[in-house]
Each structure stands twice: as structure tokens, then as C-alpha cells.
Write a structure and sequence with these properties.
The protein is α/β, with parallel strands linked by helices. 40% of the residues lie in helices and 17% in strands. It starts with 5 loop residues before the first helix and ends with a helix. Bound molecules: zinc ion.
Length: 298
């Protein structure tokens, strides 16, 4: 099959309802789109063209954190605005773009291009929450564009969970980073996070309750354009009624089964499922040893 051109991607973006001046939170799976002439760079150019100079693009571009206390080796890894993200090829193209800004937040570093990029990235810093940049976007009635069915939801679920005050086991991880004045500082994870697999549970509800502005295809990929203010409203309504709705169905998922105050925390059930997934034909004695070590480690 012929690779997708920039012109074709711009046309797809217009067909799904992306307009000049849009503020878009992007979640992108390049693999789902299929072959693109020039790869992720071309998709980024197409997006910039579709929202125009008055528009803004924002991508998650978070960085790795390390177990505490930091090992000697990890303590030498100093994060800054150019640190690559684990969020995939597209996120890293955003970071490398000459007109992009990066959140001043030490860890949850979004990358942004366009009219509001500098404002959002400056306001999102070591004094605000990990996902505060999404709050700023919602104040401007931004939209989310999720390209790829396997991508973890539409981004607002994290904010809904924080607003509802759900409590989770502290994530004991952090990183050293270079502040704007050149000083080396330390930042620790102080937000909940959660399992992205479960966030997709909300997608049928977005359709049912008016969260979806439009759906269609970008290249080969299933894509949804959502209103961030609407999806967070749907998520908060649902989570008030069922606080476990964002849990995935994997019995061996530590995050969903064990880590929240309202997880069912059935240790034996969890460890058994975890072992079945990770070890085959295990003896009972070995089971006991690993059972203890997993629960200690987590
Ligand atoms: Zn899970």
C-alpha cells in the first residue's frame, strides 16, 4: 500500500473536525496510522497546518523516574527540557521541534507547539500538580485527539481521579533535574497515575453521553475527537457512582487489583494470577517464596 502523504493526513484531520485555532491534546500511535511518508515528522506538520498558527498542539512527553533512594547511577541522570520521553516516536518529534516548549514541571513534562504553548508550559511547573496542564487546557475548552484504539484513553481521566481525591499507595520514585537557574534539584512523584488499560472503559460512555465530537480515521487508525470538558464530566459522574470503573480486567494488574485504597486487595488471588502470567509450571514452595517477595517489593 502507498504510504500516507501530508496532504492526505491534513484532509483526514479536517474530515474528523480539526479546525484552525483548535487547542488539541494529542495521544498518537504511529503504528496504528500505518506507513506515513516521512514518518512522525509529517504527521506533526499536518497537525500544525490543520490547527494553523492560532492553534495549539500538546502531547504527553513525560520522563522516566527512578526508585528511591536514587542509586549512584540514577542520581547522575539529570532531567531537563530536552530529556526524551518514554511516550513514543510522536512525542519525541514534538520535543525536538524548533518551535516547541516543554512543561517546567520536573517530571510530567508535556510538549507543546503553537499560540498557547509557552503560557501552558510556564504555568505547569514544580508548584503545580502532575496533570495541571490539562486543567489549563480545559479552561480554554480544548479538545483531545486520540489516534489509535490501543492508546490509553483521552487524558482527562487522570484529572478526574485527582479531583475526586482517590487515594493510592505512594509511588516511591523520583528524579534529579536542572532548574531554570541551573541549580540541580530533586523531584518526587506526588500524584496518583493509574493503569491506562482501564481508562479505555470510558470510551462507550463518551459515545453514549455526548463526549465524542467526531470519530473517523487518520490514515488507517481509528480516531476520536473529544471535548475535554465533556469527557471529564462523564468520568466524574461515573466514578462517583462506581469508583472502580477505571480498573482494567487483568487479574494480575498490580495497579488496579492492589494499589488503590479501594482496590479489592485479595493478595492470594492477585499473586496467583501474577504467577500464572509470569511463570509456568511453578512448584508450591517456589510460589510461597515469590509470593512473599512480590508483596514486599510492590
Ligand atoms: Zn490495570
Amino acid at each position: 500500500m502507498k504510504p500516507f502523504s501530508k496532504e492526505k493526513l491534513v484532509e483526514d484531520l479536517k474530515n474528523i473536525g480539526v479546525k484552525k485555532g483548535d487547542i488539541l491534546h494529542l495521544k498518537v500511535s504511529m503504528r496504528a496510522i500505518g506507513k506515513v511518508e516521512g514518518g512522525a515528522d509529517t504527521l506533526l506538520q499536518a497537525l500544525i497546518e490543520a490547527v494553523g498558527e492560532e492553534g495549539t498542539l500538546v502531547s504527553d512527553a513525560f520522563i522516566n523516574v527512578f526508585a528511591l533512594p536514587l542509586s549512584n547511577e540514577d542520581s547522575k541522570k539529570i532531567a531537563d527540557d530536552k530529556t526524551p520521553s518514554y511516550a513514543g516516536v510522536f512525542a519525541n518529534k514534538m520535543i525536538q521541534h524548533p518551535k516547541s516548549f516543554r512543561s517546567k514541571h520536573p517530571i510530567q513534562k508535556f510538549s507543546a507547539i503553537g499560540a498557547k504553548a509557552e503560557e501552558y508550559c510556564t504555568k505547569h511547573n514544580d508548584k503545580t500538580g502532575g496533570y495541571a496542564l490539562l486543567d489549563f487546557m480545559m479552561d480554554d475548552d480544548a479538545k483531545n485527539l486520540t489516534i489509535g484504539g490501543a492508546v490509553a484513553g483521552v487524558g482527562t481521566t487522570h484529572v478526574a481521579i485527582e479531583r475526586l481525591g482517590f487515594v493510592r499507595q505512594i509511588i516511591n520514585k523520583g528524579v534529579n533535574y536542572k532548574a531554570d537557574n541551573g541549580e540541580i534539584k530533586f523531584a518526587k512523584v506526588d500524584w496518583n497515575g493509574g493503569c491506562g488499560d482501564g481508562f479505555r472503559n470510558f470510551i462507550p460512555l463518551y459515545y453514549e453521553k455526548g463526549g465524542i465530537l467526531n470519530s473517523g480515521k487518520i490514515g488507517n487508525s481509528e480516531t476520536i475527537l473529544t471535548s475535554m470538558n465533556k469527557t471529564i464530566e462523564i468520568e466524574m459522574d461515573k466514578l462517583k457512582e462506581d469508583n472502580s470503573f477505571f480498573f482494567c480486567s487483568n487479574p494480575a494488574c498490580y495497579s488496579c487489583r492492589m494499589s488503590w485504597n479501594h482496590s479489592d486487595k485479595n493478595k492470594i488471588k492477585f499473586v496467583w494470577a501474577w504467577l500464572k502470567k509470569n511463570y509456568k509450571g511453578i512448584s508450591f514452595n517456589r510460589f510461597k517464596i515469590i509470593y512473599k517477595s512480590i508483596l514486599k517489593k510492590k
